[in-house]
Specification:
There is one protein chain. By secondary structure, the chain is an alpha/beta fold. The chain folds into 2 domains: 235 residues, Aspartate Aminotransferase, domain 2 (3-Layer(aba) Sandwich); 84 residues, Aspartate Aminotransferase, domain 1 (Alpha-Beta Complex). Helix content is 42%, strand content 17%. The chain contains 14 helices and 13 strands. The strands form 3 sheets. Strands 2-8-7-6-5-3-4 form a 7-stranded mixed β-sheet, sandwiched between helices. A 4-stranded antiparallel β-sheet has the order 9-10-13-12, covered by helices on one side.
Length: 335
Amino acid sequence: MIADLRSDTFTRPTPEMLQFMMQAPIGDDVYGEDPSVAELERKMADMFGMDDAIFCPSGTMTNQIGIKLLTQPMEEIICDKNSHIQIYEGGGIAYNSLISSKLIDGDRGMITAEQVEAAINPDDLHQPISKIVALENTMNKGGGAIYDMEEIRKIAAVCEKHSLHLHLDGARLFNALVVTNDSPKEYGRLFKTISVCLSKGLGAPIGSVLLFNGIPRIKAVRLRKVMGGGMRQAGLIASAGTYALDHHVERLKDDHRRAKQLANALKEAAFVEDMYPVETNIVIFKVKNSAEMVKTLAEKGVKCITFSPVHVRMVTHLDFTDDMLEHTLQAIHSI
């Protein structure tokens, strides 16, 4: 048996999802004529109480479009130093938006309102104009850490005070929502733009959605087009997102349960030196040499990845079953 814990991006469509996809009505979405894309966009916008939404191939694209919609060259984005937008999107902030980044050293990737306020540049021609704050929830590099809603409200208040926009990289936002039971509409009220990925824990094969308030739809669609995101009969994949929203949200709790069971076993393992708190589906633990540990686990039929020279990451997901969990626990106990 092979247990693949490298990422929740390794999920594959369930038979039921595939059947739903094959029955989806489709059209040419570049012409605005794909009913399944339109359905997904309306569903997401209504769920979060936001003005509109556009369907894109990837979370990187939705993040990059969201940031570019809210900024002009010579401005600056404030975010944690380990944010996905900063370290995993190919330098897209600088390339696409021609802005600089003010990086904050947060707690497991989560920044505070006080840190945001301290990072805002003064009105000084020598410095870029602070324009946008970006949060990531859950925080990948923080071990799937969840922002406290009260802290988000405080950050939003700082942004409003200083006329800054607030963007959310919500790649795994539903993982947070099933834990906190916060309202999606509360997120829609606080953020100007929100990126939500459908192809991680929700199990769709491809796609992310960018939600936005107070922005003409044509501006977002035009940016999607110029970035190569204009898709034709995209309803085939958009329908997978609709199915996932209807059937795969509550089951994220199973991923979280399995992640906590992994964490409990790892805490007792002699080779583990430290571990991040496990709140959702990501487990990050510290060892002497992460590359050697990943190799050792692979030899025992457990795939995971290095997350630093001394950190290993495991991610539970739709295709990681209880049998695979038991196999992984046995592998951990055998080391």
